[in-house]
Amino acid sequence: MTAPVTRWRESADALVLLDGFHALKHALRFGAEVPVAVTTDRRAALALAGELAADVRDTLDALLTEVPEATYASLVPRPHPTGVAALAIRPPREARLRALARLPRTAPVVVLDNPRNLGNAGAVIRLAAGFGATGVITTGTLDPWHPTVVRGGAGLHFATAVERLGVEELPAGPLFALDPEGDDIRGAKLPDDAVLAFGSERSGLSAELRARADHLLALPMRPQVSSYNLATSVAMTLYHWSATGGAPS
Length: 249
Prior knowledge:
By secondary structure, the protein is of the alpha/beta class. It has helices at 3-11, 21-29, 42-52, 57-63, 69-75, 93-101, 118-131, 147-152, 207-212, 230-243; strands spanning 16-19, 36-39, 64-66, 84-88, 109-112, 135-138, 161-164, 175-184, 195-198, 215-218. The strands form 2 sheets. The chain has a 6-stranded parallel beta sheet with strand order 7-6-5-9-8-10. A 4-stranded mixed beta sheet has the order 1-4-2-3, sandwiched between helices. Strand 6, helix 8 (147-152) and strand 7 (161-164) form a beta-alpha-beta unit.
């Protein structure tokens, strides 16, 4: 067994799985510390880096270890089409909490209130990173650093502050909660220090979060359409924020 594979098996439970080339690429771009990375085909992975991520190609060249496909498959829960995987050190919780609490903010914090779907949570983190949001908070039992969430987020957990908190622990700032009974969002301007809260896919906002909201807002929706996908709702809201004052940097 090679040293990188041994290191992987010894530390996998304590580190963040970066599943696929794009997750590893994004994590490296945003400063993740990656102690081990494997691939089934170094030449193909480096060629992909040369085409899509020249800025991290040299780092990948030094980092990637080629392993047999059977070894790779034994290290990950579900092999990725790119045949690349890595382990990264999660940013310290204290640093994530400081980033979420820091004022003044230049971009909103997104709150997912008791989300249920790991893939949806990952998609939201990817969106938040793209819009330059300060961070994404989940309430409830879902682990926002679960491997499936990280896979859905394409490694962009390292580009924003991702944390699980109770409703009573949410950072300061005007709390705008998305709710079908709220005012049309098109009439609102969302400030940079906003906390934007979205209910779960099945049951909507919890009573606790709804009671704490300063404003209830509704997304425009055709009659008889019941709801939007969670990630779609977040995308529409962050776009509205960016179009009315905020913008990705």
